[in-house]
């Protein structure tokens, strides 16, 4: 869902509620271009986890913003905690329900998370792969040494 959002708009509270209730993202736009993405907390946590797994840690941040609210911002029943590098964590009743990140950060997280997931093998898959590798002949040895001897004669000249 794309929404053109005006700063300080009371509909931001409704958008947070929608994300919390449906688990769907809301993309915020300005002048027909994406500016931010409001994501469910669990989805954002998963993206950050897999991105960090691929990237060996978190994204290097730009310089902290020079100005941001001195305290949390209330959006009806939701409280928004602004991050010094941009973005916001949104809570309701002391539970994290959503996160707001700029569109570029979300695109980067999605790309890094994709690579992080591709390089992952669960414990069962990892054990099966290790077993498969153990059955393989060492590199450079011929396959003939590892096959069972044949009962048939090598040639038909007999």
Number of E-state strands: 7
| Structural Rg | 26 Å
Structural class: alpha+beta
Q: Summarize the amount of helix as a percent range.
A: 25-40%
Averaging pLDDT over every residue, what do you get? Answer: 81
**N-to-C series of helices and strands:** EHEEHEEEEHH
C-alpha end-to-end distance: 80 Å
Structural commentary:
This protein has 158 residues and is an alpha+beta fold. The chain has 4 helices and 7 strands. Helix 1 links the parallel strand 1 and strand 2 (26-30). The termini are far apart. The mean pLDDT is 81.
Blueprint of the fold:
Elements: E1 2-4, H1 11-22, E2 26-30, E3 33-40, H2 41-55, E4 73-75, E5 78-82, E6 88-92, E7 95-102, H3 103-118, H4 123-134
Parallel strand pairs: 1-2
Antiparallel strand pairs: 2-3, 3-7, 4-5, 5-6, 6-7
Quick structural overview:
35% of the residues lie in helices and 23% in strands. It has helices spanning 11-22, 41-55, 103-118, 123-134, and strands at 2-4, 26-30, 33-40, 73-75, 78-82, 88-92, 95-102.
Sum up the structure in keywords:
158 residues; alpha+beta; seven-stranded mixed β-sheet; 4 helices; 7 strands
């Amino acid at each position: 869902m794309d929404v053109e959002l005006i700063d300080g708009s009371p509909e931001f509270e409704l958008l947070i509620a929608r994300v919390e209730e449906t688990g769907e993202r809301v993309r915020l736009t300005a002048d027909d271009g994406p500016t931010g993405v409001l994501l469910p907390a669990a989805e954002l946590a998963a993206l950050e986890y897999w991105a960090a797994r691929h990237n060996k840690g978190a994204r290097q941040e730009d310089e902290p913003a020079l100005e941001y609210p001195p305290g949390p911002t209330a959006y009806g029943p939701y409280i928004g905690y602004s991050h010094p590098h941009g973005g916001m964590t949104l809570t309701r009743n002391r539970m994290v329900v959503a996160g707001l990140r700029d569109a570029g950060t979300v695109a980067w997280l999605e790309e890094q998370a994709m690579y992080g997931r591709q390089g992952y093998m669960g414990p069962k898959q990892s054990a099966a792969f290790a077993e498969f590798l153990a059955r393989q002949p060492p590199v450079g040895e011929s396959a003939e040494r590892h096959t069972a001897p044949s009962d048939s004669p090598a040639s038909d000249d007999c």
